[in-house]
Design a protein that fits this description.
The protein is α+β, with helices and mostly antiparallel strands. 26% of the residues lie in helices and 12% in strands. Strand 1, helix 2 (53-61) and strand 2 form a beta-alpha-beta unit.
């Protein structure tokens, strides 16, 4: 098994005033954390709580692949 690393973190302070009402909180978190990697052609692995069809479509537009664990 390969080692895993945390490469980015985001503290949760409660309600996100900048999140559009139509966007799920979990989708917003993933997109924020993956900001430095958008357009780089990498994979994103998420737990099922952070996985949605809308997120998968948005990541595909930004050249990232979504894998769920």
């Amino acid at each position: 098994m390969e080692p895993t690393y945390i490469v980015n973190a985001l503290p949760y302070f409660g309600k996100d005033e900048l999140r559009p009402p139509s966007q799920r909180l979990s989708d917003r978190i993933v997109l924020q954390l993956m900001g430095p990697y958008l357009g780089k052609g990498t994979n994103v692995t998420t737990y099922n709580f952070f996985t949605s069809w809308e997120l998968a479509k948005e990541l595909k537009k930004r050249e990232l692949a979504l894998l769920t664990w």
